[in-house]
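Design a sequence for this backbone.
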């Protein structure tokens, strides 16, 4: 046990004795926290060692907390042998693209952008349940080609252990192409990713989760660039007025807003509700609704049963 841990344990024991609480009870309460911290440290060390073993790596970088942590550790482990690759398309908001570029510039990380227009992928625009598979397959084939041109040994992506609990057909494409998933490999959950990112002073440690704009549409609803632009503009407005975690799900001419508890509270204001309603109607939505179930990742996957990739 490290000296600091011993000192903290002694201080807790002294405090427990002064308060009349048996030392073993205080230690039992502290033990889970110490175990969690030790496990997080161990996973962080395994992540660093795994990335260092690659010799060189191209990281699929979206600017979210998962890929930001992965890229930051990879750059620390491999230095100039680490390259960030950001794919851009109609389903990737400009704000996210700019944030990814700024992250790399601030840290001196080599960064390239790769065009991956999903609307040109055969079958994508019909929005089938395996849409994510089609997109990821196309995307990572492009990233593999860039890595091969640069002589980079490994392409890595930032899915975490929690992603295994939802319908993620894109993970099938990732496995088929031999893409590395270091966060999953060392068993990091989303909460642990955020904790490590916070330790590393990454400003994105508490950034709301983001998924491509096509995920706002029910499966089998046709995807168009015009519709994606309207969704992007609607979500940007909601972010601008102070909502954090937010999705604008589209059902025909209905815009269904999913947000977190903070957003629900903000929308209690009649003035804000009126402004949101007016702006989204300006964007072409006849009706604007607030989902009482709140924000739910992958909520459009409800009703799917044993989908094929």
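Sequence:
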């Amino acid at each position: 046990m490290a000296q600091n841990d011993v000192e903290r344990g002694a201080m807790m024991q002294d405090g427990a004795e002064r308060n009349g609480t048996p030392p073993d009870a205080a230690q039992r309460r502290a033990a889970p926290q110490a175990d969690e911290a030790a496990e997080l440290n161990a996973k962080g060390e395994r992540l660093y060692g795994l990335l260092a073993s690659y010799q060189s790596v191209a990281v699929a970088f979206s600017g979210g907390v998962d890929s930001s942590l992965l890229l930051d550790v990879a750059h620390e482990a491999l230095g100039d042998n680490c390259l960030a690759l950001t794919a851009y398309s109609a389903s990737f908001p400009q704000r996210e693209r700019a944030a990814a570029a700024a992250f790399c510039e601030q840290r001196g990380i080599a960064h390239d952008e790769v065009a991956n227009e999903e609307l040109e992928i055969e079958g994508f625009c019909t929005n089938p349940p395996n849409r994510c598979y089609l997109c990821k397959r196309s995307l990572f084939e492009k990233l593999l080609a860039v890595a091969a041109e640069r002589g980079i040994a490994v392409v890595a992506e930032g899915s975490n252990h929690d992603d295994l609990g939802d319908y993620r057909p894109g993970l099938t494409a990732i496995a088929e192409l031999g893409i590395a998933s270091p966060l999953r490999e060392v068993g990091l959950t989303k909460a642990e990713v955020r904790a490590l990112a916070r330790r590393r002073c990454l400003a994105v440690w508490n950034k709301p989760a983001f998924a491509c704009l096509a995920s706002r549409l029910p499966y089998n609803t046709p995807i168009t660039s015009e519709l994606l632009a309207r969704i992007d503009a609607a979500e940007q407005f909601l972010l601008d007025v102070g909502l954090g975690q937010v999705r604008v799900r589209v059902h025909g001419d209905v815009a269904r807003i999913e947000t977190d508890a903070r957003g629900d509270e903000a929308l209690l204001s009649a003035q804000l509700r009126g402004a949101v309603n007016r702006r989204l109607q300006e964007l072409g939505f006849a009706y604007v609704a607030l989902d009482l179930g709140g924000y739910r990742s992958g909520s459009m996957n409800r009703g799917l049963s044993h989908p094929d990739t």
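The two ends are 48 Å apart (CA to CA).
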